[in-house]
Design brief:
The structure is a single chain. The protein contains 18 helices and 14 strands. The strands form four sheets. The chain has a six-stranded parallel beta sheet, with helices on both faces. Strands 11-10-9-12 form a four-stranded parallel beta sheet. Strands 7-8 form a two-stranded parallel sheet. It is elongated, with a radius of gyration of 25 Å. The relative contact order is 0.08. Bound molecules: uridine-5'-diphosphate-xylopyranose. The site of uridine-5'-diphosphate-xylopyranose has 20 residues, from helix 9.
Protein backbone atom coordinates (compact mmCIF):
# COMPACT_ATOMS: atom_id res chain seq x y z
CA UNK A 1 0.00 0.00 0.00
CA UNK A 2 1.47 3.32 -1.06
CA UNK A 3 1.43 5.98 1.65
CA UNK A 4 1.81 9.76 1.49
CA UNK A 5 4.84 10.94 3.44
CA UNK A 6 6.14 14.38 4.36
CA UNK A 7 9.72 15.10 5.42
CA UNK A 8 10.98 18.16 7.28
CA UNK A 9 14.71 18.43 6.61
CA UNK A 10 16.80 17.13 3.72
CA UNK A 11 20.12 16.50 5.49
CA UNK A 12 21.68 13.03 5.55
CA UNK A 13 18.85 11.25 7.34
CA UNK A 14 16.08 13.24 5.65
CA UNK A 15 17.38 12.93 2.12
CA UNK A 16 18.36 9.26 2.21
CA UNK A 17 15.16 8.22 4.02
CA UNK A 18 12.87 10.23 1.74
CA UNK A 19 14.55 8.91 -1.39
CA UNK A 20 14.57 5.35 0.04
CA UNK A 21 10.87 5.39 0.96
CA UNK A 22 10.01 6.77 -2.49
CA UNK A 23 12.08 3.93 -3.96
CA UNK A 24 9.92 1.32 -2.20
CA UNK A 25 6.79 2.91 -3.65
CA UNK A 26 5.58 5.68 -1.33
CA UNK A 27 4.74 9.23 -2.40
CA UNK A 28 7.12 11.63 -0.72
CA UNK A 29 7.16 15.42 -0.30
CA UNK A 30 10.34 16.73 1.32
CA UNK A 31 10.63 20.25 2.67
CA UNK A 32 13.68 22.37 3.15
CA UNK A 33 13.69 26.05 4.07
CA UNK A 34 16.60 26.70 1.73
CA UNK A 35 15.34 27.36 -1.84
CA UNK A 36 18.78 26.59 -3.31
CA UNK A 37 18.76 23.11 -1.75
CA UNK A 38 15.21 22.53 -3.01
CA UNK A 39 16.21 23.68 -6.51
CA UNK A 40 19.27 21.41 -6.60
CA UNK A 41 17.42 18.37 -5.33
CA UNK A 42 14.46 18.97 -7.65
CA UNK A 43 16.98 19.03 -10.44
CA UNK A 44 18.32 15.61 -9.39
CA UNK A 45 21.60 16.85 -7.90
CA UNK A 46 22.28 15.43 -4.41
CA UNK A 47 23.49 17.93 -1.81
CA UNK A 48 25.60 15.25 -0.11
CA UNK A 49 28.17 12.75 -1.36
CA UNK A 50 26.55 9.35 -0.88
CA UNK A 51 27.15 6.27 -3.06
CA UNK A 52 23.98 5.16 -4.90
CA UNK A 53 22.01 8.29 -4.03
CA UNK A 54 22.20 10.18 -7.37
CA UNK A 55 20.67 7.27 -9.31
CA UNK A 56 17.81 6.75 -6.83
CA UNK A 57 17.12 10.48 -6.59
CA UNK A 58 16.75 10.86 -10.34
CA UNK A 59 14.73 7.64 -10.77
CA UNK A 60 12.20 8.65 -8.11
CA UNK A 61 11.88 12.25 -9.31
CA UNK A 62 11.20 10.91 -12.79
CA UNK A 63 8.70 8.37 -11.46
CA UNK A 64 6.81 11.25 -9.82
CA UNK A 65 7.03 9.67 -6.36
CA UNK A 66 9.35 12.32 -4.94
CA UNK A 67 9.26 16.09 -4.88
CA UNK A 68 10.99 18.87 -2.95
CA UNK A 69 9.45 22.13 -1.79
CA UNK A 70 9.96 25.05 0.57
CA UNK A 71 6.21 25.06 1.36
CA UNK A 72 5.41 23.33 4.65
CA UNK A 73 1.63 23.59 4.01
CA UNK A 74 1.91 21.34 0.94
CA UNK A 75 3.79 18.62 2.73
CA UNK A 76 1.53 18.61 5.77
CA UNK A 77 -1.78 18.62 3.89
CA UNK A 78 -0.61 15.94 1.44
CA UNK A 79 0.85 13.53 4.00
CA UNK A 80 -0.41 10.79 6.30
CA UNK A 81 2.92 10.55 8.11
CA UNK A 82 5.26 13.48 8.75
CA UNK A 83 8.91 12.74 9.49
CA UNK A 84 11.05 15.17 11.48
CA UNK A 85 14.57 15.00 10.07
CA UNK A 86 15.99 18.36 11.08
CA UNK A 87 19.39 18.72 12.75
CA UNK A 88 19.93 18.31 16.49
CA UNK A 89 23.47 19.66 16.86
CA UNK A 90 25.36 19.89 20.16
CA UNK A 91 24.96 23.01 22.27
CA UNK A 92 28.04 24.42 23.98
CA UNK A 93 27.16 22.47 27.15
CA UNK A 94 26.94 19.15 25.23
CA UNK A 95 23.11 18.95 25.33
CA UNK A 96 21.23 18.47 22.06
CA UNK A 97 20.02 21.73 20.56
CA UNK A 98 16.34 21.05 19.87
CA UNK A 99 15.45 24.46 18.45
CA UNK A 100 14.92 23.12 14.92
CA UNK A 101 12.69 20.34 16.24
CA UNK A 102 10.63 22.86 18.17
CA UNK A 103 10.40 25.11 15.11
CA UNK A 104 8.97 22.26 13.02
CA UNK A 105 6.47 21.40 15.77
CA UNK A 106 5.35 25.05 15.81
CA UNK A 107 5.12 25.08 12.01
CA UNK A 108 3.08 21.88 11.83
CA UNK A 109 0.62 22.73 14.62
CA UNK A 110 -1.56 25.30 12.81
CA UNK A 111 -1.50 23.24 9.60
CA UNK A 112 -2.99 20.06 11.08
CA UNK A 113 -6.37 19.41 9.43
CA UNK A 114 -7.11 15.71 9.88
CA UNK A 115 -5.18 12.97 11.78
CA UNK A 116 -1.41 12.97 11.23
CA UNK A 117 1.32 10.77 12.57
CA UNK A 118 4.39 12.81 13.42
CA UNK A 119 7.56 10.73 13.56
CA UNK A 120 10.92 11.68 15.04
CA UNK A 121 13.77 10.56 12.75
CA UNK A 122 16.22 13.10 14.09
CA UNK A 123 18.29 11.77 16.98
CA UNK A 124 16.77 13.32 20.09
CA UNK A 125 17.09 12.87 23.85
CA UNK A 126 14.62 10.58 25.59
CA UNK A 127 11.26 12.27 26.21
CA UNK A 128 11.57 14.79 23.37
CA UNK A 129 8.34 13.37 21.88
CA UNK A 130 6.46 14.61 24.96
CA UNK A 131 7.67 18.14 24.29
CA UNK A 132 6.69 17.91 20.63
CA UNK A 133 3.26 16.65 21.64
CA UNK A 134 2.92 19.43 24.26
CA UNK A 135 4.00 22.15 21.79
CA UNK A 136 1.60 21.03 19.06
CA UNK A 137 -1.32 20.53 21.46
CA UNK A 138 -0.78 23.99 22.94
CA UNK A 139 -0.77 25.66 19.53
CA UNK A 140 -3.26 23.51 17.63
CA UNK A 141 -5.93 23.01 20.27
CA UNK A 142 -6.91 19.91 22.22
CA UNK A 143 -9.39 18.53 19.64
CA UNK A 144 -6.65 18.22 17.02
CA UNK A 145 -5.87 14.56 16.19
CA UNK A 146 -2.27 13.42 15.97
CA UNK A 147 0.31 11.08 17.50
CA UNK A 148 4.03 11.49 17.97
CA UNK A 149 6.17 8.39 17.39
CA UNK A 150 9.89 7.66 17.22
CA UNK A 151 11.54 5.74 14.40
CA UNK A 152 15.29 6.30 14.69
CA UNK A 153 17.62 5.77 11.74
CA UNK A 154 20.90 3.89 11.91
CA UNK A 155 22.34 4.98 8.57
CA UNK A 156 26.08 5.25 8.24
CA UNK A 157 27.46 7.93 5.99
CA UNK A 158 29.08 6.34 2.97
CA UNK A 159 26.73 3.34 3.01
CA UNK A 160 23.49 5.11 3.95
CA UNK A 161 21.51 4.01 0.88
CA UNK A 162 22.42 0.35 1.38
CA UNK A 163 21.79 0.62 5.13
CA UNK A 164 18.36 2.07 4.40
CA UNK A 165 17.32 -0.53 1.84
CA UNK A 166 18.79 -3.46 3.80
CA UNK A 167 18.47 -2.50 7.46
CA UNK A 168 19.53 -4.89 10.20
CA UNK A 169 16.54 -3.79 12.30
CA UNK A 170 13.74 -1.25 12.38
CA UNK A 171 12.75 0.36 15.67
CA UNK A 172 9.18 1.59 15.97
CA UNK A 173 8.49 3.56 19.12
CA UNK A 174 4.77 4.25 19.38
CA UNK A 175 2.42 4.67 22.32
CA UNK A 176 -0.92 4.24 20.47
CA UNK A 177 -2.30 1.40 18.38
CA UNK A 178 -3.00 3.76 15.47
CA UNK A 179 0.60 4.98 15.32
CA UNK A 180 1.97 1.45 15.67
CA UNK A 181 -0.12 0.03 12.83
CA UNK A 182 0.60 2.96 10.48
CA UNK A 183 4.35 2.48 10.89
CA UNK A 184 4.05 -1.29 10.54
CA UNK A 185 2.06 -0.78 7.30
CA UNK A 186 4.83 1.50 6.09
CA UNK A 187 7.73 -0.86 6.72
CA UNK A 188 6.53 -4.45 6.95
CA UNK A 189 5.73 -5.03 3.25
CA UNK A 190 9.10 -3.79 1.97
CA UNK A 191 11.66 -4.62 4.65
CA UNK A 192 12.43 -8.13 5.83
CA UNK A 193 14.39 -7.54 9.02
CA UNK A 194 13.46 -7.72 12.69
CA UNK A 195 11.06 -4.93 13.67
CA UNK A 196 11.27 -3.97 17.33
CA UNK A 197 8.09 -2.41 18.71
CA UNK A 198 8.67 -0.22 21.76
CA UNK A 199 7.38 2.81 23.60
CA UNK A 200 8.35 6.19 22.19
CA UNK A 201 10.83 6.94 24.99
CA UNK A 202 12.50 3.54 24.59
CA UNK A 203 13.00 4.12 20.87
CA UNK A 204 14.53 7.54 21.54
CA UNK A 205 16.89 6.00 24.07
CA UNK A 206 17.84 3.07 21.79
CA UNK A 207 19.29 5.46 19.21
CA UNK A 208 21.45 7.33 21.74
CA UNK A 209 22.57 4.12 23.41
CA UNK A 210 23.47 2.47 20.09
CA UNK A 211 25.80 5.30 19.07
CA UNK A 212 27.23 5.59 22.58
CA UNK A 213 28.00 1.88 22.63
CA UNK A 214 29.76 2.11 19.25
CA UNK A 215 31.79 5.07 20.54
CA UNK A 216 32.69 3.09 23.68
CA UNK A 217 33.83 0.10 21.62
CA UNK A 218 36.14 2.34 19.59
CA UNK A 219 37.64 4.02 22.66
CA UNK A 220 38.09 0.61 24.27
CA UNK A 221 40.13 -0.74 21.35
CA UNK A 222 42.09 2.52 21.17
CA UNK A 223 43.05 2.16 24.82
CA UNK A 224 44.08 -1.43 24.09
CA UNK A 225 46.10 -0.19 21.09
CA UNK A 226 48.16 2.05 23.40
CA UNK A 227 48.98 -1.01 25.48
CA UNK A 228 49.77 -3.03 22.33
CA UNK A 229 52.23 -0.36 21.29
CA UNK A 230 54.06 -0.67 24.61
CA UNK A 231 54.11 -4.48 24.42
CA UNK A 232 55.16 -4.66 20.76
CA UNK A 233 51.91 -6.40 19.82
CA UNK A 234 49.67 -5.71 16.80
CA UNK A 235 46.27 -4.41 17.91
CA UNK A 236 44.62 -5.62 14.69
CA UNK A 237 45.49 -9.20 15.65
CA UNK A 238 44.19 -8.67 19.17
CA UNK A 239 40.95 -7.25 17.69
CA UNK A 240 40.64 -10.29 15.44
CA UNK A 241 41.31 -12.61 18.33
CA UNK A 242 38.58 -11.12 20.51
CA UNK A 243 36.16 -10.21 17.70
CA UNK A 244 35.58 -13.82 16.65
CA UNK A 245 33.73 -14.29 19.91
CA UNK A 246 30.14 -13.51 18.88
CA UNK A 247 29.53 -11.89 22.27
CA UNK A 248 32.15 -9.28 21.31
CA UNK A 249 31.77 -9.12 17.50
CA UNK A 250 34.43 -8.08 15.02
CA UNK A 251 32.95 -4.74 13.90
CA UNK A 252 34.01 -1.38 15.32
CA UNK A 253 37.29 -2.69 16.66
CA UNK A 254 39.46 -0.78 14.24
CA UNK A 255 41.97 1.20 16.28
CA UNK A 256 43.28 4.51 15.04
CA UNK A 257 42.37 8.17 15.24
CA UNK A 258 39.09 7.58 17.04
CA UNK A 259 35.51 8.41 16.18
CA UNK A 260 34.41 11.59 14.44
CA UNK A 261 31.46 12.56 12.31
CA UNK A 262 28.24 14.33 13.06
CA UNK A 263 26.71 11.58 15.22
CA UNK A 264 28.93 9.58 17.57
CA UNK A 265 30.61 12.52 19.38
CA UNK A 266 27.34 14.49 19.57
CA UNK A 267 25.19 11.57 20.71
CA UNK A 268 27.73 10.49 23.31
CA UNK A 269 27.73 13.93 24.91
CA UNK A 270 23.94 14.27 24.64
CA UNK A 271 23.38 10.91 26.36
CA UNK A 272 25.82 11.92 29.11
CA UNK A 273 23.73 15.03 29.75
CA UNK A 274 20.48 13.07 29.84
CA UNK A 275 22.06 10.62 32.30
CA UNK A 276 23.51 13.40 34.47
CA UNK A 277 20.16 15.18 34.52
CA UNK A 278 18.70 11.98 35.94
CA UNK A 279 21.45 11.59 38.53
CA UNK A 280 23.20 8.68 36.79
CA UNK A 281 27.00 8.42 37.10
CA UNK A 282 28.59 8.90 33.65
CA UNK A 283 32.28 8.49 34.52
CA UNK A 284 32.54 5.49 32.15
CA UNK A 285 31.36 7.64 29.23
CA UNK A 286 33.57 10.58 30.22
CA UNK A 287 36.54 8.27 29.83
CA UNK A 288 35.27 7.17 26.39
CA UNK A 289 35.22 10.83 25.37
CA UNK A 290 38.62 11.60 26.91
CA UNK A 291 40.33 8.67 25.20
CA UNK A 292 38.86 9.83 21.88
CA UNK A 293 40.07 13.41 22.18
CA UNK A 294 43.63 12.29 22.96
CA UNK A 295 43.99 10.30 19.71
CA UNK A 296 44.97 13.36 17.70
CA UNK A 297 47.59 14.34 20.33
CA UNK A 298 49.09 10.89 19.99
CA UNK A 299 49.26 11.13 16.19
CA UNK A 300 50.84 14.57 16.32
CA UNK A 301 53.43 13.39 18.85
CA UNK A 302 54.43 10.68 16.38
CA UNK A 303 54.76 13.16 13.52
CA UNK A 304 56.94 15.33 15.73
CA UNK A 305 59.04 12.37 16.83
CA UNK A 306 59.57 11.40 13.19
CA UNK A 307 60.41 14.88 11.90
CA UNK A 308 61.76 16.56 15.05
CA UNK A 309 61.59 20.18 13.83
CA UNK A 310 58.32 20.83 11.99
CA UNK A 311 59.09 24.26 10.58
CA UNK A 312 59.25 24.12 6.76
CA UNK A 313 58.86 20.34 6.66
CA UNK A 314 56.60 19.34 3.78
CA UNK A 315 53.80 17.12 5.04
CA UNK A 316 51.29 15.44 2.75
CA UNK A 317 47.93 15.02 4.49
CA UNK A 318 45.90 12.26 2.84
CA UNK A 319 42.22 12.23 3.69
CA UNK A 320 40.33 14.92 5.56
CA UNK A 321 36.80 13.43 5.65
CA UNK A 322 35.85 11.92 9.03
CA UNK A 323 35.75 8.53 7.29
CA UNK A 324 35.92 7.07 3.78
CA UNK A 325 33.20 7.49 1.14
CA UNK A 326 31.89 10.79 2.43
CA UNK A 327 32.70 14.46 1.88
CA UNK A 328 31.76 15.23 5.48
CA UNK A 329 34.44 16.82 7.68
CA UNK A 330 32.26 17.36 10.74
CA UNK A 331 34.08 16.07 13.81
CA UNK A 332 36.95 14.87 11.59
CA UNK A 333 40.49 14.55 13.02
CA UNK A 334 41.64 16.78 10.13
CA UNK A 335 39.92 19.74 11.82
CA UNK A 336 42.49 19.45 14.61
CA UNK A 337 45.48 18.01 12.75
CA UNK A 338 45.63 20.51 9.86
CA UNK A 339 45.62 23.72 11.97
CA UNK A 340 48.02 22.26 14.54
CA UNK A 341 50.58 21.19 11.94
CA UNK A 342 50.12 24.56 10.26
CA UNK A 343 50.72 26.43 13.52
CA UNK A 344 53.86 24.34 14.04
CA UNK A 345 55.26 25.78 10.81
CA UNK A 346 54.87 22.77 8.50
CA UNK A 347 54.15 23.14 4.80
CA UNK A 348 50.95 21.22 4.18
CA UNK A 349 49.78 19.56 0.98
CA UNK A 350 46.30 18.31 1.58
CA UNK A 351 44.37 15.82 -0.54
CA UNK A 352 41.03 14.07 -0.17
CA UNK A 353 39.03 12.37 -2.94
CA UNK A 354 35.78 14.13 -1.90
CA UNK A 355 36.09 16.45 1.09
CA UNK A 356 38.76 18.99 0.11
CA UNK A 357 36.25 21.75 -0.66
CA UNK A 358 34.63 21.38 2.74
CA UNK A 359 37.95 21.76 4.57
CA UNK A 360 39.06 24.57 2.30
CA UNK A 361 36.05 26.59 3.40
CA UNK A 362 37.22 26.35 7.02
CA UNK A 363 40.96 26.71 6.36
CA UNK A 364 41.58 28.74 3.20
CA UNK A 365 44.84 28.02 1.36
CA UNK A 366 47.93 30.13 1.98
CA UNK A 367 51.66 29.90 1.28
CA UNK A 368 51.98 26.89 3.64
CA UNK A 369 48.66 25.20 2.98
CA UNK A 370 47.81 23.88 -0.48
CA UNK A 371 44.90 21.70 -1.50
CA UNK A 372 46.00 19.19 -4.12
CA UNK A 373 44.12 17.53 -6.97
CA UNK A 374 45.69 14.09 -6.53
CA UNK A 375 47.33 11.99 -3.85
CA UNK A 376 50.48 11.55 -5.90
CA UNK A 377 50.79 15.29 -6.36
CA UNK A 378 50.44 15.72 -2.59
CA UNK A 379 53.13 13.20 -1.66
CA UNK A 380 55.71 14.32 -4.21
CA UNK A 381 58.81 15.61 -2.35
CA UNK A 382 57.08 15.35 1.01
CA UNK A 383 59.13 14.74 4.16
CA UNK A 384 56.21 12.82 5.65
CA UNK A 385 52.83 11.50 4.69
CA UNK A 386 50.04 11.62 7.27
CA UNK A 387 46.94 9.49 6.65
CA UNK A 388 43.76 10.72 8.35
CA UNK A 389 40.98 8.88 6.45
CA UNK A 390 40.64 5.22 5.45
CA UNK A 391 39.95 5.91 1.76
CA UNK A 392 40.51 2.93 -0.57
CA UNK A 393 42.29 5.30 -2.91
CA UNK A 394 44.89 5.96 -0.23
CA UNK A 395 45.15 2.26 0.59
CA UNK A 396 45.70 1.44 -3.07
CA UNK A 397 48.51 3.96 -3.37
CA UNK A 398 50.63 1.18 -1.92
CA UNK A 399 48.48 -1.92 -2.21
CA UNK A 400 51.56 -4.14 -2.08
CA UNK A 401 54.48 -2.49 -0.36
CA UNK A 402 57.00 -3.44 -3.03
CA UNK A 403 59.71 -1.10 -4.23
CA UNK A 404 62.00 -2.06 -7.08
CA UNK A 405 64.66 0.57 -6.92
CA UNK A 406 66.55 0.64 -10.20
CA UNK A 407 68.82 3.47 -9.05
CA UNK A 408 69.68 2.22 -5.54
CA UNK A 409 68.22 5.38 -4.02
CA UNK A 410 67.46 3.87 -0.60
CA UNK A 411 69.37 1.95 2.03
CA UNK A 412 68.21 -1.70 1.95
CA UNK A 413 68.42 -2.08 5.72
CA UNK A 414 66.28 1.03 6.29
CA UNK A 415 63.65 -0.08 3.80
CA UNK A 416 63.61 -3.52 5.37
CA UNK A 417 63.04 -1.98 8.78
CA UNK A 418 60.02 -0.03 7.48
CA UNK A 419 58.40 -3.25 6.26
CA UNK A 420 58.76 -2.65 2.52
CA UNK A 421 59.64 -5.52 0.18
CA UNK A 422 62.63 -3.80 -1.30
CA UNK A 423 64.58 -4.82 -4.36
CA UNK A 424 67.62 -3.02 -5.59
CA UNK A 425 70.48 -3.91 -7.87
CA UNK A 426 73.49 -5.77 -6.66
CA UNK A 427 72.68 -5.61 -2.94
CA UNK A 428 70.95 -8.95 -2.26
CA UNK A 429 67.24 -9.49 -1.64
CA UNK A 430 66.45 -12.89 -0.13
CA UNK A 431 66.48 -11.60 3.44
CA UNK A 432 63.86 -8.98 2.60
CA UNK A 433 61.36 -11.58 1.46
CA UNK A 434 61.80 -13.33 4.80
CA UNK A 435 61.28 -10.05 6.62
CA UNK A 436 58.04 -9.37 4.78
CA UNK A 437 56.69 -12.78 5.67
CA UNK A 438 57.51 -12.13 9.30
CA UNK A 439 55.74 -8.76 9.21
CA UNK A 440 52.63 -10.38 7.74
CA UNK A 441 52.21 -13.03 10.45
C1 LIG B 1 27.06 6.48 12.95
C2 LIG B 1 26.35 5.16 13.23
O1 LIG B 1 27.19 4.07 12.84
C3 LIG B 1 25.01 5.09 12.51
O2 LIG B 1 24.33 3.90 12.85
C4 LIG B 1 24.19 6.31 12.90
O3 LIG B 1 22.95 6.33 12.23
C5 LIG B 1 24.95 7.58 12.60
O4 LIG B 1 26.20 7.56 13.28
P1 LIG B 1 28.49 7.49 10.95
O5 LIG B 1 28.60 8.74 11.74
O6 LIG B 1 28.16 7.58 9.50
O7 LIG B 1 27.38 6.50 11.57
O8 LIG B 1 29.90 6.75 11.06
P2 LIG B 1 30.44 5.35 11.58
O9 LIG B 1 30.63 4.43 10.46
O10 LIG B 1 29.65 4.87 12.74
O11 LIG B 1 31.88 5.81 12.08
C6 LIG B 1 31.99 6.79 13.10
C7 LIG B 1 33.43 7.11 13.38
O12 LIG B 1 34.07 6.03 14.04
C8 LIG B 1 34.27 7.41 12.14
O13 LIG B 1 35.10 8.51 12.43
C9 LIG B 1 35.09 6.16 11.95
O14 LIG B 1 36.33 6.41 11.32
C10 LIG B 1 35.30 5.73 13.40
N1 LIG B 1 35.52 4.28 13.56
C11 LIG B 1 34.58 3.38 13.17
C12 LIG B 1 36.69 3.84 14.16
O15 LIG B 1 37.56 4.64 14.53
N2 LIG B 1 36.88 2.51 14.34
C13 LIG B 1 35.95 1.59 13.97
O16 LIG B 1 36.19 0.38 14.19
C14 LIG B 1 34.76 2.04 13.36
Amino acid sequence: MSMRLGFFGTGYAGLVTSVGLAEVGHTVTAIDKDPDIVARLSDGTPTIHEPGLPELLIANLEAGRLRFTTQAEDAVSMSDIIFLCVGTPSRADGRADLSQVEEVARTIAPLLDDYKLIVEKSTVPARTAYWIDWTIRRLAGSECEFDVASNPEFLREGSAVRDFLQPDRIIIGADTERARSLLLDLYEPSFHCPIVMTSVTTAELIKHVANTFLASKISFINMVSDLCEELGVDVATVAKGIGLDPRIGSHFLHAGLGFGGSCLPKDLSALMKVAEDHGVDVSLLKEVERINTTRVDRLLAKVERALWVMRNKVIAVLGVAFKADTDDVRGAPSLAVVPRLHRAGAVLRVYDPAAVRNLERLYPPDDRLTYMESALEAVRDAHALVILTDWDEVRSLMRTPIIVDGRNLFEPAEMQATGFEYYSLGRGEATFRTERQRVRI
